[in-house]
Amino acid sequence: MACFEAALAHACAEAGLAPAEAAKTIADVSARAEFDAAALARAARTAGALTIPFVKRLTEQVAAVSPEAARYVHLGATSQDVIDTGLVLCLLPASARVLALSRRLGDAAAVLAKRHARTPMAARTLLQPAVPVTFGWKAAVWLSMIARSHARFAALAREACVLQFGGAGGTLSAYGDKGEAVAQALAAGLSLKRSPIPWHSARDGFARLGAEAAILAGAAAKIARDVSLLMQPEVAEVSEPSGEGRGGSSAMPHKRNPVASLAALEAAQRTPALAATLLGELAPEHERGLGQWQSQWLTLRELLASAAGALDAMGEALEGLVVDAKAMRANLERSGGLVYSESVSIALSAKLGKSAAHALTEKLSATAVRDGKRLKDVVRQAHPELDVDSLFDPERCLGDSQAMIERTLADWLSAREKAL
Amino acid sequence: MACFEAALAHACAEAGLAPAEAAKTIADVSARAEFDAAALARAARTAGALTIPFVKRLTEQVAAVSPEAARYVHLGATSQDVIDTGLVLCLLPASARVLALSRRLGDAAAVLAKRHARTPMAARTLLQPAVPVTFGWKAAVWLSMIARSHARFAALAREACVLQFGGAGGTLSAYGDKGEAVAQALAAGLSLKRSPIPWHSARDGFARLGAEAAILAGAAAKIARDVSLLMQPEVAEVSEPSGEGRGGSSAMPHKRNPVASLAALEAAQRTPALAATLLGELAPEHERGLGQWQSQWLTLRELLASAAGALDAMGEALEGLVVDAKAMRANLERSGGLVYSESVSIALSAKLGKSAAHALTEKLSATAVRDGKRLKDVVRQAHPELDVDSLFDPERCLGDSQAMIERTLADWLSAREKAL
Amino acid sequence: MACFEAALAHACAEAGLAPAEAAKTIADVSARAEFDAAALARAARTAGALTIPFVKRLTEQVAAVSPEAARYVHLGATSQDVIDTGLVLCLLPASARVLALSRRLGDAAAVLAKRHARTPMAARTLLQPAVPVTFGWKAAVWLSMIARSHARFAALAREACVLQFGGAGGTLSAYGDKGEAVAQALAAGLSLKRSPIPWHSARDGFARLGAEAAILAGAAAKIARDVSLLMQPEVAEVSEPSGEGRGGSSAMPHKRNPVASLAALEAAQRTPALAATLLGELAPEHERGLGQWQSQWLTLRELLASAAGALDAMGEALEGLVVDAKAMRANLERSGGLVYSESVSIALSAKLGKSAAHALTEKLSATAVRDGKRLKDVVRQAHPELDVDSLFDPERCLGDSQAMIERTLADWLSAREKAL
Amino acid sequence: MACFEAALAHACAEAGLAPAEAAKTIADVSARAEFDAAALARAARTAGALTIPFVKRLTEQVAAVSPEAARYVHLGATSQDVIDTGLVLCLLPASARVLALSRRLGDAAAVLAKRHARTPMAARTLLQPAVPVTFGWKAAVWLSMIARSHARFAALAREACVLQFGGAGGTLSAYGDKGEAVAQALAAGLSLKRSPIPWHSARDGFARLGAEAAILAGAAAKIARDVSLLMQPEVAEVSEPSGEGRGGSSAMPHKRNPVASLAALEAAQRTPALAATLLGELAPEHERGLGQWQSQWLTLRELLASAAGALDAMGEALEGLVVDAKAMRANLERSGGLVYSESVSIALSAKLGKSAAHALTEKLSATAVRDGKRLKDVVRQAHPELDVDSLFDPERCLGDSQAMIERTLADWLSAREKAL
Lengths: 420, 420, 420, 420
Known about the structure:
4 copies of one chain form a homotetramer.
Chain A: H1 2-14, H2 20-32, H3 37-47, H4 51-65, H5 67-70, H6 79-115, E1 120-125, E2 128-134, H7 135-160, H8 179-190, H9 204-230, E3 238-239, H10 259-279, H11 296-319, E4 322-323, H12 325-334, H13 341-352, H14 354-371, H15 375-382, H16 388-391, H17 401-419
Antiparallel strand pairs in A: 1-2, 3-4
Helix pairs in contact in A: 1-2, 1-8, 2-4, 3-4, 6-7, 6-11, 6-17, 7-9, 7-17, 9-10, 9-11, 10-11, 13-14, 14-15
């Protein structure tokens, strides 16, 4: 907020509306002004806007140096200009941090996608082992979300983080015919872009940025969901990195908890509702609404902090992820090979058609389960004509996954470029 | 869903996995297949997926024509492929409809922005008359939201509405080395784009589209909020178009209700939560989640219908909006000219500095209110040196608004182009 | 809505405001009146309220029988009276259905709590096996949620489902001094309770009912979450009931999917946002708001249907739940007995104090994992002084669980009584 | 959290599980222990739970006094016991504060309901003046929401704020057969009630409390909505209390903003989504979930602070509300008496029946508007047989409002009693 007032003073001076000397004084004082946050908050409650006591205190501090300069503080601006632009100045580094963490998570997923492109594991649908896929392909699905979100978040931050400057009603009426000049100088002074018309009451930019932050948090949560499920000791296919003080329990000495996944899921759990708050604040009354914009800094702070926290946790988790390819292979086999039932069914359908083959394979699977036999053996016995070894070879079940991985990696590289 | 199965059969035939004859039969039957929706719903409850009883019924109908062809129904696909792609095929025309309504509303706002660029009215902040602006400028603020959302919604619809096709686990494993060929042919058959990797469990596209639909509904709601407030008989500056059967009351014969605004506000009221539902479904378990994707068709239907309804209502309202420029001017005067207090304060600040001028004008305003005088007269008496007529002339208070309107109109034209 | 108009006519007749004959005619026609729903919907859009075209059509049908009687249709009431009371009349049986399903689910959980009070299994915290508990105790935790919600939902339905009747502004002004008499007769005619003052614009009752419906759905989802996790083949401790057409996959013949859990999780996923919509509609403008009450029937329908669906699915699942006590016991052992680490730590802390004992047990556990030994054996070797068999006996680890189960069962019985 | 550990030590001593001396030392140190909050937060991130570094630091401080006592810190408890009970200990005074503010707002509304029971004003439906009501009746509608919520919030706070104590898995297994004794002593030591079974994973109590907090905030917002609309200078029927530094504008010296209403609307705007977050956290995994309970303290803090803020703002506003009965009366007349159209219609319907009377009054109203005449005069001229003065007398249009006010006041007194 003080940055805004400093830049505004300079802009007014540039446009000939204030003496250069006064502007310099205001800027100097703003740079080192001190405020009693609690007192400001109390006064804001009565005043209805934080800016009012803030400008009062700033003006007092300027007046202590130069009563003349104090005459030009906050010239022609309105409360919301200061709050909104102040928020924008905070959102820029916050967004950059989110973006850096998103890039790191994307890179970590990309490494896994490449490294484990041919590491077989069971796909699981509705929490049931389904068919063989590879862990690299699974990581590529994770990556695809980040690839779609990353550059977009960067673009939305650029679009939302523009100067708010309209004065009392929004038309810069206080500056006569100098409004455009002041606005240009102010934007330049703060290194901010401008919008074609003020967005006091048109708050879609923040809503959109908030929704994309929730999506990034959701992408981290998706990875966290899968990692925490794979880290169940009964599954034990991956493990978050361990280390001193990591993931213990205050009651149970043997525990190794998925603490990064927990952090990501916690953060993501709160983001949809926070995004909904912003989406519900799109219709303020007339030129300045009652209760919509006044707390968006609070909601956006929570949203971006949540997204950053989730991305950070999973970035660290994926970079140090322990992948147990043996356990993955063992789990594929453990089910008695039921995950190959699709292979069997397809092989049978050449002769029987889809429905009959499906029904027959259901029966063979049930036999295997009932008799405690491996499906492979049951199939071999019942259908000696099939090339059973090949049907039960995960390497032969990868379908189009390698091309999918490559396309996703290419997408990621392109998104990474665009976001720079 | 039947379209999907028809196109899949053709794609399999093209890739040499099914006889062309069978594909033709499947497509023919699909085109005229009949389903008992209630029975399907009941069976879906038990089966856990609508696709299962659907495919069963379709297969029976195909088998009645050709048992041979029935063998190739739904070959290699999975339930979610059919549901998601079926939804995409419904979302395409729905999105086009939303877009057409958004264009119409934008065009109507643009007409008002141009026509009333110099029609003075009071800006209102926190529901209090503030300073003079113009109605055209106000309409341009409305337009700025639509201009930012319109082309983006079009792009997000294109990105979200891509083929879902992965088979059991997502890797197209059922087709051996023909997965790519089948996928290409299927996409071509349905005129759909493809994603680099299936999005079974990466559902950010729908979340993003849903959030943007909520933003469009919010833009309509913003207009509705302002129109309904301006239509209060105590303000009476604009009126929704009237007509036979429009906006009456079942109890009060004199009423003219803002029925379009009501419809838009009603619809917009439900959209943030619906969008939050989609944002909360980004972390399904592994390769097919429990409960996230299964009902997104329901949520998206509500979201797009709400957005369409809100846009439609306000498009109609703005196209026929009755603008009472005289009432606007009268309201500017009615307050005894208090809305010109900023002008007075600025004029005084040249001599007194911002703070002292602000305090003095507060006092002059209070005097005017207390004594039931017009601020203009109070100021003239107290400060005969000021050019009072000019200070109280709305034409001189327009600030930068004309340029803002022009920039916004240009933005709208460009967004309109991009969305085509 | 027709029931409302019929009862209103009788109430007016009773209060001497309409001829008994006319009332009888209105009631007769209302009982068999027919409406073109699509036409009503179209007209409602223009009119701003469904009641307006509805009353028009009803009046026409009454007039066809008796022009005299038609004069008394909808006498003194307003649109919202009809919509809100109509909704209340629908909510009553819907709430009763939710309650019956909640009772059934509670009863099923109570049976499991009793039957498996001493069936040991691993508690799992953060998805990691923790310490032994019993499956009955786990079911009692499930039951505790339903016990808290069940009677409350019944009470909230009773409180929310009261007559809405205020006329144009809410004061029954159209009936002169007969308002009270008409209101009493109308409430009696519809078997509805009354509120002290109309709730046109005080819509907390629906918000509260909606939140409790979401809580009931959440209770079902909690059970579904646990059941679906326990049903993972890698864990395999419980299974939803199977049966013809239940839980198969269209692609994978071997699958047995947790379809009831899926249904419950799907439904519960949408309820928080729907409840939020109602919570966000508590501040309508003045005596009749723009867009809040107009669609609560839609939101409440979805909420109650979701709650009912979730409860129904899990009631069926728990009634037929297959509990594999052997698998539970085996999983307790499978981890090499790490779930007994708390027992070990407590035994050691008698001598070493909590912190040192915790650290030592961490080390023993790590040794067991590293060397692929059973914790029991590691402990026995390192600390021959401990009664290891007893420390590793799940029966000795049940703590206070039996008393907890009994208290919860008592709570349930009491809630069940209260809700009748 | 330190209170919990102190009371736990005493409880263990009472049950004979720890020396009384050690317990005393732990309690003494806990009472004055110091923590580096930032360092705890950092360590919590790695550990996955705040309790772990917290207990470590506390144990160190106890050990510095007595290594022997340090052995008994946190004995048998688990992280979540400390966090949840710590939160409960914070929620109790927070809830008491909310309740005190709710009582104050209810009392202020009750005063207005009584004082202005016969002060006529226009009801407004869909933002259009409708029929005469009284301001006291309007305040009674406000009061009815608080009356329904007040005692319920008190009860829900009592039910939600119970001891959380289950140990590692939830069964108090660490205490052998002393679990019940320790739990009783701990509850007594903290003056907390107990639940029949731990609620680690059954979090409906917080969800319910959160929803009711949102409802209280919504009740304040409803009042704020109406006050801010009535405070529009074009309506000017009520005004928030004024005072030094209250409601000014940084740009516009004449402004008197509805700052209390703004604060209440701002707070209420965020509560539905926060409540939805809690409603969405009802299905944690097994005995301790990933990400649900870990941040409920954050969400509940925001919810209760928002409710308190909204209630506080409107309590102050209603206590000092300036009610302009003259303006209310003038607005009733200003419309040319259109708000009496219902009276006219009813008078006419005695002869013509409802529909024809409604249509005729619509025509008379339109004539009045078109010709700029008062409806009263138009009616008098067209229907000399009617007692026009009486039809246009607000005192005769109050319907059942006085009885409604009295019933609501009685409800409020009863709710007030119950909440004590």
